[in-house]
Amino acid sequence: MKKYIVEFIGTFFLVFTVGMAVRSGSPLAPLAIGASLMVMIFAGGHVSGGHFNPAVTLAVWLRGKLLLKDVIPYWIAQMLAGLVAGLLVNLLLNRIQMPADHNVVNSLVVEFLFTFALAWVVLNTATSKGTLDNSFYGLAIGFTVVAGAFSVGGISGGAFNPAVGLGVVVMGFESISQLGIYLAANLTGGAVAAFAFKQLVED
User: Annotated Gene Ontology MF terms (predicted)?
Assistant: First the structure.
């Protein structure tokens, strides 16, 4: 149960940061979001692995570093955290937000690519023998999200994470149809990253 609570806490603060930073209109919102993920990984990684993302959980399970019995509870904790964070942002700021309009194909492509990149970095920095016990994994993972948010956030909303996707839909940033894009592209990106890792790196 401790692992699941830590996954909830880390995912909550990630999604809460997304909502508050984006609604504030800060040009440094991507940096705040990546930093939030980084510190939550450093805080909770030793307990739960610091996934805070259903796509990462899928990748880590496919890589063989997570038990099947933990996958669904991780997903529940992560998605519930995204929902709660989204509702709290709405409560605190009480603003009406118009959903963004994104091109479906472009969204699918960039969400797949940067979720692949995120899961690929997680697997290589946090699960590989070649980088065992390093001190940089949280920074590498967090800055993958920073890079993605700055470069393609305007194309897809820059979720790279179904829990973030749920949160931004609840906050009104994205339409419910965009959540389907996040689920499909993010989970596929995580799965393909695990396959690539197993073929190219696994030791």
Answer: channel activity
